[in-house]
Amino acid sequence: MAHPSQLGFQDAASPVMEELLHFHDHALMIVFLISTLVLYIIVAMVTTKLTNKFILDSQEIEIIWTLLPAIILILIALPSLRILYLMDEINDPHLTIKAMGHQWYWSYEYTDYEDLAFDSYMIPTQDLSPGQFRLLETDHRMVIPVESPIRILVSAEDVLHSWAVPSLGVKMDAVPGRLNQTAFIASRAGIFYGQCSEICGANHSFMPIVVEAVPLEHFENWSSLMLEDA
């Protein structure tokens, strides 16, 4: 999760997020090089006293400053499109979970099971246990198995919401009357936090998302206990 004074992204917990981090670094380096070049040209133009009578008419420089930006845009666009298609790829998911946004909590339904569904509310500050995070902890976590393709079906019951977990590289709008889907793979065990990322009313800040990735054996034990309680 994020830390105070952190400048970069959260640590990646899925292959897609790792790709997004690499693309961010790639694009940032290109922006840095362009900024350095522009700054050098500005400083050179301001400080130099040399003149060039051919500076007003040069076919070569016009060709260069037309082709160079096009090449740079291609270097950014190709990896961007690759990641875009990777994020839309859903191949044989091992588990499907339906996340439903409400004012102001999330409900989860494990559609592969007959009766496994629950609501997930934020834990009030006064009820937090030592070590729990304010405004981020929920009374029921969405538990998933590690290294398994997970499909998330996202919708809303009342207004627009957005189901987002930065560490997993997932953000999908929850629209009433519409079923959106996305997928991810948790590459390591852990607890990953997110929040509703679409302004949805007075308590928009108080509907966190907690995803707990556990080994498959632990997930099977958890699902059996949840089914027994139901």
From TrEMBL:
It catalyses: 4 Fe(II)-[cytochrome c] + O2 + 8 H(+)(in) = 4 Fe(III)-[cytochrome c] + 2 H2O + 4 H(+)(out). The keyword Metal-binding applies. GO terms for cellular component: mitochondrial inner membrane. GO terms for molecular function: copper ion binding; cytochrome-c oxidase activity; oxidoreductase activity. Its main location: mitochondrion. The keyword Cell wall biogenesis/degradation does not apply. Residues 92-225 form the Cytochrome oxidase subunit II copper A binding domain. It is a multi-pass membrane protein. Binds a copper A center. The chain crosses the membrane at residues 27-51, 63-85. Residues 1-91 form the Cytochrome oxidase subunit II transmembrane region profile domain. Component of the cytochrome c oxidase, the last enzyme in the mitochondrial electron transport chain which drives oxidative phosphorylation. The respiratory chain contains 3 multisubunit complexes succinate dehydrogenase (complex II, CII), ubiquinol-cytochrome c oxidoreductase (cytochrome b-c1 complex, complex III, CIII) and cytochrome c oxidase (complex IV, CIV), that cooperate to transfer electrons derived from NADH and succinate to molecular oxygen, creating an electrochemical gradient over the inner membrane that drives transmembrane transport and the ATP synthase. PANTHER family: CYTOCHROME C OXIDASE SUBUNIT 2 (PTHR22888:SF9), CYTOCHROME C OXIDASE, SUBUNIT II (PTHR22888). This is Cytochrome c oxidase subunit 2. The gene is CO2.
